[in-house]
Fold:
Amino acid sequence: MKRRLLGTTLWVAAVVVAGPTLAQPSYPIPFDSERGVFSFADQIERSLPAVVRVTTLNRAASGTGAPREIAGGSGVIINAADGIVITNHHVVEGGNTFRVDLIDGRSFDAQLLGADDATDVAVLQIVGTGLTQVEIADSERLRTGDLVFAVGHPLGLDQTLTMGVVSGLGRSGIGDAIEDYIQTDAAVNSGNSGGPLLDSAGRLVGINTAILSGSLGGGNDGLAFAVPSRILLAVADQLRENGQVQRGRIGVTMGSLTAERARLLGAPIIRGAVIEDVAPGSPADRAGLQRNDIIIRIGNRTVEGSGAVTSAVGIARPGEQLDLVYLRNGAEQRTTVIVEATAPTTVQIAATGESGQAFGAGFRSMRATDRAPEGVEAGALITFVEPGSVAAASGLMAGDVVVRVNTTDIATADDLAKEFRDNPDGVQMVVARGAERLPISLRPT
Structure:
C-alpha cells in the first residue's frame, strides 16, 4: 500500500511542476480541489441510481413452493417514466418471475416485455416513483482509447464500479450471435451481465454482455465485450412495441476479408466483408451486388468484417434502406439495398445450382479446396447461419457439412435445396462436424 501511495504522490507532483510549461487542455482531468484528488465521481455518481440488480426466478415443475433463483445479473433504467430496464437475454432466460433491486434499497417485481437471443438484449418493466434514468450517448462516436466505466453487481457483490479504456470496436466472432461489440479492458465478471458501460461523462454507451477468459474459473483477463447503445436501443424499441424482433434479410452469404483473400482478389485493403454468394431475386441481387464484391462501408460506418454487415441487417426493419460502399475489381462503387422480411420457409438456389439459402442458412457444394471433415468426400457445406433463424435454433453451425437428409444422401447444394423444397414441414439431417456425425432436426416455426 505504501508503495502505491508513493507512486501516486510522485505522479501528481510531476503534473503540478510540469503543468505550466505545457499547453493546457480545454477539458482537464476532473480534479476535486476540496479533497485534492483526481476523480470522475461527479460524472459517474448521477448515473449510479439507474443501475440495478436483476434476479431471475422460476417455480418448480410441480408449481408448488416458492420461486427459486436461477440466474442473476445487472441492468440499467433507460426510461424512468415508464420504468424500462435493459439487461441481457441470458440474464432472464428460463425465468418466469423477475425482481429488480435499486441502490436505494427498494425492490420491485418486474414484467418481461421481451428478450432477443441474437443480440442478447432483454427489456423489463417496473412500476415505481422516484426512478432515475441513465443519459444515453451515441456509441458511434466512441473511439479506441476512450475511458469507460463498467457498473454492475459482480460475483455477488453490491454495486461495483471498474474503469478501463475502449480497446477495440466492431468486434465479432465471439459467439453465434449478431455481434458488433465494444471491447474494453474494464474488469467485468459474472454478475456484470446486463449492467451499463458508461463513458467518462457518465453516459450509457453499451451494456456488458461477455468476456473472453483463459482461466478455468472464467475470470476477467482484460477482454470484455458490450452491446453498443446503437444496437440495444433499436432492439429495445422493437421488443417494447411487439415483444419480439422482426428481422430482415438482403440475401447474401459473407465472409470476413483476410490478408490472404485480399491478395487473391487483388484488393488494396485487408478489412471488409466479402460476398460469397448472392441469392437470385434477393434485395442484394436487385441492388447489383455480386460474388467477390467487398463491402467496406454501410452508411457512415466502416465495415471491419462480416459481423458489421450481419449486425446492420440484423437490427434493420423490413423496408429499411442500407447505403453500401463496396469494391469490385479494386474500384469503389455504391448501391442501396432494401431490407426485406425474412421468409423462413423460402428455399433459394443460385442458377448454377452450386449455392443456396434456406431457413436462415447459406450452403454450397463442397469444393476440392475445402478442408473436408474426416471421411467426407461430398456434401453441402453450411457457409453462414443467421442469428435468431430457424437454422440457428436447430443447432446448425457454419462449417457443418450436410451429408444426409431423411434417407437421402447429399452430394451437392442442389440436392439439399431439393430436399428442403420437398419437405416444407422440416427435415431430419445428419451433419459432419469434425470427426462427429450429428443428427439435427430442422423444423420451421
